[in-house]
Amino acid sequence: MHGESYENALDICYEAVAFPELWSSALDRLAHALGATGAMFYPKDVNENATTVPSSSVYGGLLEDYVAGGWYLNHYRAIRGWNLFLSNRKSVIIEHDLASDEERKGLPHYNELYLKWGFPGFAAIGFKVDGDPWCLPLIRSRHEGFFTPEEAARLAKITPHLRRMVKLGNLIASARSATGLSTFDTIGQAALLLDGRGRVIALNACAEELLARNAGCLHIKRGRLLSADGSNDLPLQSLVAAAVDWSRSTADTEKVLPISIERPARLPIMVEAISSPAVVRTVSPNAHAIILLKDPELHAIGDPARISSLLGLTPAESMLCLELATGASVAKAASTLGIAESTARQRLKAVFQKTGVHRQSELLLLVRGLNQSR
Question: Does 7 or 3 have the greater pLDDT score?
């Protein structure tokens, strides 16, 4: 490592914690100071979301290839490297800890990905943040060669800095996420933000209140939204897993449909997921899904005439909207209104066309917002 340039590079990385737009150039500087071409932060199991974490500029094309080609699957560096980190046998690993020269000749990941991009040399500095495994992978070009055991020992010295950077970054991101979620408070909507692993990274005041009132059936434990009832929790976890998986196919869309959390002798809590990256990123750059919780007992049905006037709906369409706003399914709303389910779906389609919304969750937010603005 290069004395003054190494210290300067760390200073710039600390600045990037507060100003994420600086990460690419900051990690360029850090990589150079550590005797490498590129560097990036890599949480365990980020896999297909690898392009979303901070990385130096040289990593750009390589990471796109890595994700598009599915190279994160059965990756010898990941499998063997994380085992060494998690067993506490190594805090810094280098390429020769993972494969011999002879074995490397037959490894597709090495020959078809890393050599293709001209980066044979590899090292990774492992660390944990709040119990979660992270590492800082470093790549070297052909002329830089491989990292040596002596260099690995020197790289270990920056581990405390990396841990603090990630810790501070998480705290700042959580604060910014909470601010973004406050928009939902203005319409009385309980909302939670989930990261790529399905863990809650922020929740708004309405969500805190709802969970406090329903702690016996719905709560957050070790960062995860859970239901105390196993029959409720299985569909909840399936919803969460599908919502944060941006690589899912169109056929998996049904897995993110709204679900209900049953409560004894009470109306169920409705759970809806917003998983569109374009929408979620406007609230937080670190989030992968927004979970909306609704307790229908807290929301009066409202005035159908007012909804008709404001949204330009027929009385029949307004009544359907207000039934849906209580958390009822289309089938349940149809039964309550005494109409066929096919009729209810036709009316809902007409409502979508008139209001410009495309999903039932968006319509519910719209109707509830109108009710609460009186």
Answer: 7
3-state secondary structure 321-367: HHHHCCCCCHHHHHHHHCCCHHHHHHHHHHHHHHHCCCCHHHHHHHH
C-alpha to C-alpha distance for 8 and 269, rounded to whole angstroms: 52
- Over residues 46-64, the pLDDT tens digits come to 887 788 889 999 998 899 9
Distance CA 43, CA 47 (A): 9
Q: Distance (Å, rounded) from C-alpha 254 to C-alpha 261?
A: 17
Q: How far is CA 117 from the centre of its chain?
A: 29
CA 53 to chain centre: 11
274 closest CA partner among 266, 264, 284, 261: 284
Q: Show Cβ contacts of residue 343 under 8 Å, excluding neighbours closer than 6 positions.
A: 334
* Exposure class string for 346-372: b at 16+ Cβ within 10 A, else e: ebbeebeeebebeebbbbbbbbbebbe
Question: What is the Cα–Cα distance from 135 to 53, expressed in whole angstroms?
Answer: 12
